[in-house]
Amino acid sequence: MVLERIGRIDTMVGAYISVFEEQALARAAEIDGRIAAGLPVGALAGAPVAVKDNMCTAFGATTCASRILKNFQAPYDATVVGRLSAADAVIVGKTNMDEFAMGSSTENSGLRRTVNPWDTGRVPGGSSGGSAAAVAAGLCAAALGSDTGGSIRQPAAFCGVVGLKPTYGRVSRYGLVAYGSSLDQIGPLTRTVEDAALLMNVIAGHDPSDSTSVCESMAPVSDYLADLDRPVEGLRIGVVSSLNAGADPAVVKALDEALAVYRPLGAELIEVELPHFDYAIAAYYVIATAEASSNLARYDGVHYGHRSKQAEDYVAVYSKSRAEALGQEVKRRIMLGTYALSSGYYDAYYLKALKVRNLIRTDLVSAFERCDCIIMPVAPTTAFNIGEKTDDPLQMYLSDIYTISANLAGIPGISIPCGFDGRGMPIGMQILSPAFSEDRLLRIARMYERQTQWHQRRPDMG
Amino acid sequence: MSDLQYKVVVGLEIHVQLCTKSKMFCGCAVEFGAEPNSRVCPVCLGMPGVLPVMNRLAVEYAILAGLALNCRIARRTKWDRKSYYYPDLPKNYQISQYDLPLSAEGYIEIPLDDGRTKKIRITRAHLEEDAGKNLHAEGNYSQVDLNRTGTPLLEIVTEPDMSSAAEVRALAVELQRIVRYLGVSEADMQKGHMRFEPNVNLIITRGGRQYKTPIVEVKNLNSFRSLERSVEYEIGRQIDEFLETGRTLEIGNKSTRGWDDVREITVLQREKEEAHDYRYFPDPDLVPVEVDEAWLAEIQSRLCELPLARQRRFAEEYGLSAYDAGVLTAERETADFFDQAVRAGGEPKRVCNLLTQVGMKLANEKGGGIARLGPSTQAVAELAKMIDDGTVNATAAGTIFAEMVATGKNPAALADELNLVQKSDAGELEAMVDEVLAANAEAVADVRSGGKKAGKARGFLLGQVMQRTKGQANPKVVSEILGKKLG
Question: Which of A72, B181, B343, B421 has its CA 20 to 30 A from that of A133?
């Protein structure tokens, strides 16, 4: 059914880079067979799930929406893909994204254009724009995205779905093609908070193949569904009023109304400060690009991926393959990161950025001494027009202002639908909570969701 | 130019391959000579999305080596990425250690030719992963074999404390002995387990002034001979160059040269040290390594007596010559065997002779170590005792040792079986001596005359007695009888 819908609608949306029709049908039949035979099935039995195309699958291509990996077939499954399969999910396809997850609109895809299902003249957000659009347009039941600076939460907000970025180390990164290794985290994009909890139950947990995934003895994984409907008693919500200045009035208004929903539930609003918030973007674009410049060095045309036909020696294999097949934004970030790590500049940029990162983490830790969560916008605006910001990368970077801190601090953050603007575009609310408190975070989100109907609205896709 | 004097200054970088079963950051086997690209996985191939997982044993081996090199072991260390593009490096960065090496500030004591030792300071020793190999095939292309990619390497950097090619060689040999003793590396030169890069220059004194020649780094030497010869060659070449050009050391004029094994010369590779920017930064995929007290103590407990100390002990405690002590301690297995045989009651000098003159030769022929030869340390000790108490002579003992290897029988049984027990019965031997004396009047006269021929004649008579007993007479007893009869 989903496959039929994809066939009909995805030509318009462009959410998928590849669709695994044959495998999906075979897999679904196999699971149906087990159900019919009364055999046990997994928690996601038969659910059509989409995976962002920067997570490796042993079948089909894994492109990262880059021409340099256009025909790349990974020889292995990412840990999350293995976990989805083990839970009997049906992986229907791989979704479009900004090339190597670098971008906030999915316009940097080297392979495909994805539009916002609510308004096809607008972007779906990014970099997990394909996953968010697929969920919003009903082209899958749920999707996985990755979030380095907001890449799950912002497209979730733009497309009116739920998007959770877990704590750094909660979900294995093995098989996630690295962009900014110390910031990247995989998480679910779903229609409801409950579905997000369900997916977290499947993908969260320690993985010996990822040294940065946290041992369960240090931070046990909970059953995120078990207590989901139990409200957090005496909830203290942190708000940072100074942050609203940069956001659209419609976004601020929706947020105020959302906070008003919590009050009758016994929540207390507490004003908190994040003194170093303004430096987050600068620090992020040094750290993420520095790591990216190193992570992307392997796409050189020697061992796999695009190789220039014009190269006459091995140095030219590198330079020409990369020049031909990497997009402009990727090149920009590689250059930025290379510069930041160069001898003589390392201390002034990379080291300084790490210090800022620490300050931001400390700010959040002390804020969480006074509150259980912090609520703020996901993005300053709703989904913007296609092409509106492509010529102004700095403006594009600035739209990450609200989401980046969670990545720098490694804490979890969720985006849930909380209204629509005057043009009918969805607005998201962001809830941040302390590291490894996803269970409470989901409960706090669920408290709101039960009181509202925003998440039930669907774009009219025919 | 007769007033020219010079001092040699050499520092060494050594890469030692650790003998872990699996690679530094993945589960692939470390194996020499396997089919190209057959010992690889997505991780060591640098596929998109993979992550490294540290091999704990490699860290323990590196710490063990650091302790043996008297280094300070870092309690907290980390991994850094070193970036450069080369086809044998799939990620185009190498995971290494930059500013927090696992061990630093140590020294190695090396034996000198005159019997003294010298301390060479160790700057640092850190762990890193090896690259693969580029194979330059015929035609206009190259091939890459990534089996070696990710093999754990210990990079040891010394201070420029060596002042001759012989010292450089001595350090290399001593280091090989140490890592083999510790069991952290096979240190097999043929398999490239040890690779050397000496940094050489000279301090030349002429006309009361001092000049330093530009530093030359010789790349990738993988034998003791090429290491020693390349340093020797550089010394000569740098003197010549100084005389010709007068060039002295400046910032940035360090050059890199390669060793031509056939012509035995160094060849210029890079004139000026290129401003290599490796853009080191901490690898975000790996967590820092905390070496706590308990772990360190556990590793420390695996330290053994080091070869040089053992060599010294063998000489001092057992009165062995420096040469014999050196031969016995070259391999830990031999030294252990010797120690145990001595502990089992073998007289050290006798055991030493049995091992160095017979056992090691047989072991070599069989292509294994002495411990795998067959005879136990107790059996060898017993054989040594049989020499001592006159049951067999040294020559017979050699024959018995060989038979012990061949048959696995004990030495006493073999001595009987092979009729090698010495005749030490004075009465029986005396009769035989009398017969010999009667039959060789001329020699007897020579001995009695006490002239020039006396010594030779006495030897001849002894030989005659030995021949009559088919070598079974105890020469000591025969000598005594001869002495008594001939005065």
Answer: A72
